[in-house]
Design brief:
271 residues, mainly alpha, globular
């Protein structure tokens, strides 16, 4: 089997961008108003990926555990900000940022350490070539699940506030009164990874597996790596969603089984 990989030129990328230009033309023709957002998003993507590529190349050559840790911390901080930004209603004060970031950090760290120390065992175990791409995939999916779960929980509590308080007045505990809403929030947070696993292989080939196959890796080896990644993502997402949902709910109630919706605030409207 040919183990080489196909290189791409900038001309190849320009040809591929024709399909993005087609989307812009459709937006203009149908007056969707998305052409500007498409252009800005594409430009941001190219700039960010170019910078990330340069950064990873430097990190791979330096191979410093402290620089790797610094990049991991930066990824966590930015991901925590994304979790907060995706919530229409979020916890007031530092709680809104801390719960999402903290639970994501705990879940992601547990999973990535298991992958590096038990499954892959690279030398050294913190090698950025392995740690950063893996952590990025796990972090992105965990962030998505947590943000969906928290947004659903907060919107539901505000919408069903009177129903929850009525049950509390009748003697129900906070857990009994909010059980269906907690379940709905957890289901929402779990759904992206459940759908991804159900469709992987039959409907879609994940990016990591596709990239390995295009670079010449044996398809069976690529499949094993992809299955491992999906299991890791599912574990991190599940743990993060559970901890974030329960943590936020505890913040929105108190030990006297009272609902505290005043601890939520609405996000600033987009301008």
């Amino acid at each position: 089997m040919n183990t080489g990989y196909i290189t791409l030129s900038y001309w190849d990328l320009a040809i591929a961008s024709v399909f993005l230009l087609l989307n812009g033309a459709i937006s203009i023709a149908l007056h969707l108003g998305l052409e500007r957002r498409l252009a800005i998003s594409a430009l941001r993507m190219m700039v960010q990926l170019t910078l990330v590529g340069l950064l990873l190349k430097a990190l791979f050559s330096i191979a410093s555990p402290w620089l790797t840790l610094l990049v991991v911390c930066a990824m966590l901080l930015f991901a925590g900000r994304e979790i907060l930004a995706r919530q229409e209603n979020r916890l007031a004060g530092l709680w809104g940022y801390a719960i999402g970031t903290g639970t994501m950090t705990f879940a992601g760290t547990m999973v990535i350490l298991t992958a590096l120390l038990v499954l892959l065992e690279p030398r050294p175990w913190w090698a950025p070539r392995y740690a950063l791409p893996l952590f990025g995939m796990i972090l992105g999916n965990t962030m998505n699940g947590i943000s969906l779960a928290l947004d659903t929980l907060h919107r539901t509590i505000l919408r069903e506030r009177r129903a929850i308080e009525a049950q509390l007045l009748l003697g129900a505990t906070r857990w009994q009164a909010a059980r269906p809403f907690l379940r709905a929030s957890l289901r929402t947070g779990f759904m992206p990874i459940v759908n991804a696993m159900a469709a992987t292989g039959v409907v879609s080939l994940p990016g990591m597996m596709t990239g390995q196959i295009l670079s010449g890796v044996d398809p069976q080896e690529a499949v094993k790596y992809q299955i491992m990644i999906m299991f890791l993502i599912a574990g991190s997402t599940g743990l993060g969603v559970l901890l974030a949902t329960l943590g936020s709910f505890l913040r929105l109630t108190d030990e006297r089984h009272r609902l505290r919706p005043e601890r939520l605030r609405s996000a600033a409207p987009d301008r």
